Amino acid sequence: MAKYQFQTEVNQLLKLIIHSMYSNKDIFLREIVSNASDALDKLKYLTVSDDKFKSINFDPKIDITFDENKKVLTVQDCGIGMDEKDLGDNLGTIARSGTKAFIEQLSKSGNNNSDLIGQFGVGFYSAFMAANKIDVYTRKAGGDGKAWHWSSDGTNAYEIEELDVNSEAAKLYAFDKAETYGTAIEMHLNDDSKDYASKWKIDELIKKYSNHIAFPIFLHYEQTKYDKDGKPEGSENKVEQVNSASALWKRSKSELKEEDYNTFYKTLAHDGTDPLLHIHTHAEGTQEYTTLFYVPKSAPFDMYQADYKSGVKLYVKRVFITDDDRELLPAYLRFVRGVIDSEDLPLNVSREILQQNRILDAIKTQSVKKILGEFKKLGEDAAKAAKAEKPTDEEKAKIEKWNTFVSQFNRPMKEGLYSDFTNRDEIAEIVRFKSTADEGTGDDKWTSFAEYVGRMKADQKAIYYITGRDEKNLRTSPLLEAYKNKGFEVLICADEIDDIVIPAYGKYKDYELKSVNRAGSDEELGVDKEEAKKKEEAFKPVQEKIKKALGSRVKDVVLSKRLSDSPSCIVIDENDPSLQMERMMRAMGQGNGDFVKPILEVNADHAVVKKLESADETTVAQISEVLLDQALLISGEELKDPSAFVKALNALIK
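Request: output the structure for the sequence above.
Response:
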C-alpha cells in the first residue's frame, strides 16, 4: 500500500481526538451516517441532472453491520463514492482556511469539544474517538471502475491501495461486482468502545441522532432462535430499518414536537446543542416551497472567515441540489442553518441558473422577510417580559434567548444596515447598541434606535453615537462631557464595522445619526453663539501657537464647545474617513502613513491650556504635544513615539 502523511492540521486534530477526554463519544456514529447521507444526496442529484448517471440503478440506503466478537462496526452507503484522489483530498486534508484556529478552539473547550467536530466538516475523524483503526472501501459512481482501500490507525499517516476485487473485503462489501459503488467505513473499535458493536446501542443512537435522515438506514444483525421450551436452537440473519427516513421539513408543524426539530437540527448542523430557535414555513400559491431555518445558540466558527460555509441546503422536490450556494440567503444571515425545498425549480437546475432564477429569488426574498420578522418578534417578546415586576420562568427564558441572540449575532445583523437596502428599516429595529443611558449599560443591557428615540430630550434633533475600539474607553471619552451635561444619550459603538454601517445607514426615521467623533456634531449643545464668537476671538493667539507647534500632525486646532473637564480631545473632519477606518485600511495594505489628520479641540478654560497664554516657545511645544498625545491615547490610538510623549510630560511636571 502507498503510504502518505496526514496534513499537519489533521495530525493535530487526530491527536486531540485520540488523547483527549470527550463528553459525548456517541456523536461519531451521527457524523459517519451524516456523511453517508450526503454521499447519497450527491448521487441522487446526478441521477436526475446528468445523462451520464441516469442509467445507474439507484436504490439509496445506508447499511450498518457489526461483529460483536471482532469489535468491528461498519457503515456502508451506495452514494457517490471516491476515487484515489478523493480519498487523499477528503480523508487526508482539511482544505479550509482557519483550520489552525479551529483546532486551538477545540483544544480549549474542554469536555464539550466533541460538539464542535462536525461543524468544521471534519466529522469523519470523530470515528477515531471509538476506533483504533479505520478501513475505507470505496468505488466512485461514474468513475473508471476501480475500487480503493484507505487505511489508518489515526497516528500520522494513512495508506491507499487499489482494492483487489477477489479479496475477502471486496466480497464482504460486494465490491467484487462492477455495479457496486459507494463507500464502506469499517471501524475497528477500541476496548473502551466495544459496546458500539451491539444492536441495542446502534438502534438507540440512530433513533436519537439520525432518525430524520431522509434515506432508509438498515441494521443487519443475527438473532437467536428459540424452541417452544425457550431453548436456543440456532440463529437467523435479520435486517431492520431503524429510522423513519422522512424529510422532517415536509411534515406538518402540528405533528412535530420541539424534540423533533432539535434532533433534526443536530444532524443538519453537526451541532451537539439545541438551536436557539427554528422557523418552519410551508408556502403555497404562486410558488410552492418549504423552508426550515434554525439559529444556533453560538455563532458558527467560520462566521467571520472569507471562506465561510453556507448553512442552508437547497432541495427540489426532496432531491438535494447544493449546500454551498451563498446566494440562498444574504451574507449577513450566514449564521442561519436550514433547508429550502422548492416544488417549482427544475431538477436539473445548474449553479449558473440558480444565480439568476426568479423563483429562487422570490423564495429568498420571502425567507429573509420571515426570518427578520421572527428576530424582531424575539426582541419585542423580551422587551415585554422585561417590564414584568416578577417575571415568570417563561418570561425569563424569553429575555435570556434574546440576550443570547444579541451577544452572538448583533454584529452580522449590523452588516445588513449597510448591505440590504430593501430590508434596512426592518433590520434597524433588530440591531442593538450599548449607550450612556442606564438601559444600555451592563453586560446584558442593550438599547435599540426606537428605545433611544423614546428617551430623547424635547429639544434634541439627532441620534448621537461615538465609535471606537473599546467600550470602556468610549464611556470615559472627553467627547461625551457636554452631551452628558446636556442630558443627551449617546450610543456606544465599539464594533469595528460601526464606522462603516452607521454612517451608511445615516438616518433612523426622521432622526439623523451624528457621530460625536466628528467636527460639527456639537451644534445642538446650546452654546450662545455671540459668547462663543467672543471666546474664539480671544483664543486665536493660543490657537495659532498650538498650530505652529504641532504642524502637520493635525488638520486644525479649534476651540472646543463640548469639553468641560478635559483639556483636549480629537475629532475628525466630516469629509474624512475615521481613524478606525484608517486602521482597517492599513491592515488591508491600503494607504501608507497617516492619511487622516485629526482636528484637535482644546478647552480654553482648562488650567493647562491657560498656561499657553504666557508660556515660552519650548513650553508651548511641550504642552501642545501632551494635549494631542493624551487625546489620541484616550481615543484608543497608539502613539508613534511614546518616548517623546513621556519626555514632554516629564518636562511639564518638572
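Residues 278 and 380 are 17 Å apart (CA to CA).
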